[in-house]
Amino acid sequence: MPAVNRSFYTNAKVGGNKYWTYISEELPSIMRKFFKLSDKREDNFVAGLSMGGFGAFKLALNFPEKYICAASFSGALDVANMDLGADTNGEMKCVFGSVDEMRGDGSDLIHILENISDSSKYPYLYQSCGTEDFLYDANIKFAECAKSAGLNIECVEESGDHEWGFWDRHIKLFIDKLKYLKHIT
Q1: Secondary structure of residue 150 in the 3-state scheme
Q2: Total number of domains constituting the chain
Q3: Is residue 174 part of a domain?
């Protein structure tokens, strides 16, 4: 569970760290050296909640050859349509820059989905979000776009908010599902 602060798993456009490079290249390399982990696709999955759910799907969609599965719990999955105008201290603009820059660096997940030509190369996606979560609409939009692109996505929703009670239940459901991953991918 690496710390990425409020980077949205992105190399900041203004005055920030290179968290995308860290999470997508450096950390996996270090982890494989320390723990003798496999680099085979079938042995790797990524998961996260909220901003981490965005990061997990960003990794899976940008590097589908590396992951057999990705899970997002209450993910911030439509960052290009977040209200950056409400970002009074300019934090999100510093992270992402413009919408065009988001598309160019692989941060606009909806844009990636809309441009998929071969859905068979993408991993199985597991997505859950509470119906009272402030990110619910973005999750519905992502799921619809993923289905339209032909991706293998499972969407789980139930009453719940953006909080640990919901995530604890759904993380356990997902871990149980991993036991049967070879049957669903």
Answers
A1: coil
A2: 1
A3: yes
Tokens of 58: 């960003």
Assign residue 16 a region (left: φ > 0; alpha: ψ between -120 and 50; beta: otherwise): beta
| pLDDT digits 0-9 by tens, 15-34 | 778 999 999 999 999 999 99
Domain span at residue 153 reads 41-90+106-184
What whole-number distance in Å separates Cα of residue 181 and Cα of residue 82? 33
Confirm if 183 and 69 have CB atoms less than 8 A apart.
no
Quote the mean pLDDT of the chain.
Answer: 89
Does the pLDDT of residue 122 top 90, yes or no? yes
For residues 75 and 133, what is the distance between their CA atoms, to the nearest angstrom?
Answer: 10
AA identity, residue 51: M
In a domain? residue 9: no
Q: Once rounded to an integer, what is the mean pLDDT over residues 152-156?
A: 95
pLDDT at res. 165? 94
Closest CA to 67 of 105, 109, 39: 39
User: Which pair of structure tokens corresponds to residue 67?
Assistant: 């992951």
Q: What is the CATH number of the domain that holds 62?
A: 3.40.50.1820
